[in-house]
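Q: A reviewer asked whether we had any structural model of the full assembly, not just the individual parts. We don't, so I'm hoping you can provide one. Inputs are below.
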Amino acid sequence: MKLERIESMATIYDIAKLANVSPMTVSRVINDSKNVSESTRAKVNRAIQELNYIPNSSARYLTSKKSNILSLVITDIRNPFFTKLARGAEDKAKQMGYRLLLCNSDEDIHKESDYINMLISTGVDGVMITPSEDGSSENLQILHQNDIPFILLDRRIPSVKCDEIHGDSRSGTRRILEHLIQSGHQRIAMINGPLKVSTARERHQAYIDTLTVHQLPIKEEYILQSHFKNDQANISNLLSIPIAERPTAIFAANNFIAINTIKELRKQNICVPEDISVACFDDLDSLLDLNPFLTVVSQPAYQFGYLGAEMLIERIEATAPPEFRKVVLPSELIVRKSTTSV
Amino acid sequence: MKLERIESMATIYDIAKLANVSPMTVSRVINDSKNVSESTRAKVNRAIQELNYIPNSSARYLTSKKSNILSLVITDIRNPFFTKLARGAEDKAKQMGYRLLLCNSDEDIHKESDYINMLISTGVDGVMITPSEDGSSENLQILHQNDIPFILLDRRIPSVKCDEIHGDSRSGTRRILEHLIQSGHQRIAMINGPLKVSTARERHQAYIDTLTVHQLPIKEEYILQSHFKNDQANISNLLSIPIAERPTAIFAANNFIAINTIKELRKQNICVPEDISVACFDDLDSLLDLNPFLTVVSQPAYQFGYLGAEMLIERIEATAPPEFRKVVLPSELIVRKSTTSV
DNA sequence: GTGAAAGCGCTAACAA
DNA sequence: TTGTTAGCGCTTTCAC
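A: Here is a predicted structure for the entire assembly that you could use as a starting point for your response.
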């Protein structure tokens, strides 16, 4: 059954000719329009079958301005949080008849900007985005100018008004810290992402607040600035602190930071959790992990994507309420082996 | 700086009017054509800037039949092998000016078929695909009929002639088994994926061959049929074998199978590796794994995607040699804690 | 319930 | 070097 290449793809005109109707009628059939008699519909469908006709999305888009393409702009698909999120988004998109264009911004606002232009050029119907930072507002502004709806996932931007789904950074942070405090830790460090990212700011503030409530001192040298990427951790500042003053626990603002911190600690022959406890936001892939080690606040990543796609499509199809919606997804503390009591 | 929505997107006509040239000249400029004087080019570019003009990909596609969209059809983005592969594909695609449409087939040939139709409708320039099974040849045939180049990643299909990148299932299998045999294992079971998948067939054959070479008996009850999805493992057949005859090691045809097998063994209070050793094809994410446990044959997943995109683009842009290319990527045995000697 | 005409935004082919 | 014409495949609008 070796079929030959089709000379050129069938169009509605080919179908129309074969079915002895006008192209317009074919268009009505492929769009499930009401105003077609059953008999002509059947005739047309037979022709469609026969010629293996597949509608041309670009031509459709050109007249209708509807592409049925969604885009997901995340920072890195290799972060298990985003992997699961992407799968959720793709599942919902497929279910609703949309396709998914995937973009990795690598926390880089220029790369993000490139992608936004590409997406406008493509004519995507909507965008789900984890903005690389507050400065992304300019990129989102361009989407807005071009009338493309978008939804912010995981991270917010103060100046941007739109639908959003995010986690509860404050209560998650509090839960991690109180777990550490209850385990007897008094000197708790934080390694954070850049403060131009909303989750970093919120986790920072929650760290300050929680330590304050528990009457623990907040020391500047216990707070390190890092980034959310999978990169080597620089914790020399922490390790240069004399042992007696050195933190006994580290709160990492995300999974990548935690991983790389632990790797670095091990390099220095510092044991986790015996010497220093480490806990963080966002789980690794616990379904694939046979010996889960990290104590984490886990967020429902798949839900972020699934719900995000759902809300975005509602916005696109104008079935969403006019006012913007904020969804806060709950997180869950999972205590594992990377934290212990002192 | 709150910009208003643009009434409607700028077109080459708007640019042409503003720059006092013909639309065709604008087209030449945005396509980097040689035949434009520097002065008009500058004039046009100024107009483009001023109006925030972004070319409409659909319109371009309609005339040029070039979409600059690639698609990656994999079975599940949540498998770390595919996550890394996807990232590699996306990186190369971006670098070459292409966008990436992501599709999860879930090893389901019908889902795959849906996607293929979607992709044809979209007018993608090419497809990278890990076919769900040999029956995917019909889906690929449709791509061929529509003149869309594709490349097979990881899995081959006997009847399909095209570019392909795959791992070395035979030597990988041999290496795992010889590691086990050298560790003293004589009774080695295999839990395989469906034989309608090329890698499963190859690993099966290599299993038979290697045991034969080492003069170990091949018992039917040591060979289990499973699937490559992340699903519960059914190993009751193995466990119903009396202890004295029971395998002391299990070779799992992929990472999901291994994970779920180990989980199941643990449920039955069988320790890995003390009671049974387990090894498999494809690593988990070792970069993210703090206590890697699984003994694996690791394949260069990122390379599969990166090279795959590269070869596909060469095919699209007709810079590839006319004959189809087969690339075999090497794999590496990584011995960890899930295997031990008997 | 069906069809004809026009045009979406762009580029190929040709002309100047 | 620049412009004109036609048309890609479809849907919108309006007519019948």
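A: Points you may want to mention in the reply: Chain B touches chain A through 62 residues (CB under 8 Å). The two ends of chain B are 71 Å apart (CA to CA).
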